[in-house]
C-alpha cells in the first residue's frame, strides 16, 4: 500500500508518519528530510536547494523527481511507501503516478491533514528535533518528558530549522496554497482522498488516520 500524507507545513505530517511507519510497516519518504541531508552533505543538489529552502519556496520539480526516482528504486520501497511532503505539485504527482505505474502500483490512499493557517505558525515556531534520533517536539504541544532531554535517546542537544520562522512561513504557506492544494482535486478525482481533522491532539489525529488506513486496507472505501 502506498499512502500519502498531504497538508501544509506544520500540519503534523512528520509526527504522524513516524508513528505509522511502525504500525503499518511502511517506509517513510520525506523529501524535506532528504533535502536537508543533501544540504548537510554539500552535494550538488544540496547546494542548489539550500537558498530555495531558506526562502520558503519549492525546489524545482525536475530535481525532486530525480531524487525520488533514485530513492524509489531501492528495494525497501517495494512493499509500500508513506510519502510525507511529496508530491507538492501536480507535475510531481504525475511523475509519481508514472513511476508507480511502471511497478504496477499506485497511490492507494491520500490523507489530507486539515489545519487552519493561524495554528500553523505557532506549530512551526515552537518545533524542535533531536538530531541524533530524529524525534520531533514542540515547546508547548509536545514537550520532552524531562526538560532538555530527548525521550527516545537521551540526547541533550536539539535542533531548530532555519526556515521555521514566522517570515519564511508566509512564503511556505502561499506555496502550499498555490502549488500543492491543486493536488486535492487531483486525488479526489482518482477516488483516493480522505481527510482528517489535524487540529485535534496528536494521539487523536493518529487514531483518525489509523481508522482511515484500516478501512482502506480492508477495501472499505
Ligand atoms: P514542512 O515541514 O514545511 O512540510 P518539509 O520539511 O517537507 O517542510 O520541506 C522543507 C522545504 O524543503 C520546503 O519548504 C521546500 O523548499 C523543500 N521541499 C521539500 N519537499 C519538496 C517537494 N516535494 N517539492 C519541492 N520542494 C520541496
Ligand atoms: P509537518 O511535518 O507537517 O511540517 P510536524 O509533524 O513536524 O509537521 O509538526 C509541526 C510541529 O507541531 C511539531 O513541533 C509537532 O510537535 C507539533 N504538532 C504536530 N501535531 C500536532 C497536533 N496535532 N497538535 C499540536 N501540535 C502538533
Ligand atoms: Zn533523540
Please write out the topology.
Layout: E1 3-6, H1 13-24, E2 27-30, H2 31-41, H3 44-55, H4 61-72, E3 81-84, H5 90-102, E4 109-114, H6 117-125, E5 127-129, E6 136-138, H7 166-180, H8 183-189, E7 193-197, H9 202-217
Parallel strand pairs: 1-3, 1-4, 2-3, 4-7
Antiparallel strand pairs: 5-6
The structure holds adenosine-5'-diphosphate (2 copies) and zinc ion.
One adenosine-5'-diphosphate binds at residues 9, 31-32, 35, 52-53, 56-59, 64, 85-86, 88, 92, 172.
Helix content: 40-55%
Poorly predicted tracts of residues = none
> In percent terms, what proportion of residues is strand?
5-15%
Bound molecule types: adenosine-5'-diphosphate, zinc ion
Please state the average pLDDT score.
Answer: 95
Q: How many β-strand stretches?
A: 7
Question: What does the radius of gyration come to?
Answer: 17 Å
What is the N-to-C succession of helices and strands? EHEHHHEHEHEEHHEH
Provide a count of the helices. 9
Major beta sheet, strand line-up: 2-3-1-4-7
Structural class: alpha/beta
Overall 3D shape: globular
Core attributes:
221 residues; alpha/beta; five-stranded parallel β-sheet; two-stranded antiparallel ribbon; 7 strands; 48% helix; 13% strand; binds adenosine-5'-diphosphate; binds zinc ion
Would you give an account of this structure?
The protein is of the alpha/beta class. It is built from nine helices and seven strands; from the N terminus they run E-H-E-H-H-H-E-H-E-H-E-E-H-H-E-H. The chain has helices at 13-24, 31-41, 44-55, 61-72, 90-102, 117-125, 166-180, 183-189, 202-217; strands at 3-6, 27-30, 81-84, 109-114, 127-129, 136-138, 193-197. The strands form two sheets. It has a five-stranded parallel sheet with strand order 2-3-1-4-7. It has a two-stranded antiparallel ribbon with strand order 5-6. Helix 1 (13-24) packs across helix 9 (202-217). The protein starts with a strand and ends with a helix. The relative contact order is 0.19. The mean pLDDT is 95. Zinc ion binds at residues 130, 132-133, 135, 150, 152-153, 155. One adenosine-5'-diphosphate binds at residues 7, 9-15, 123, 126-127, 136-138, 141-142, 201-202, 205.
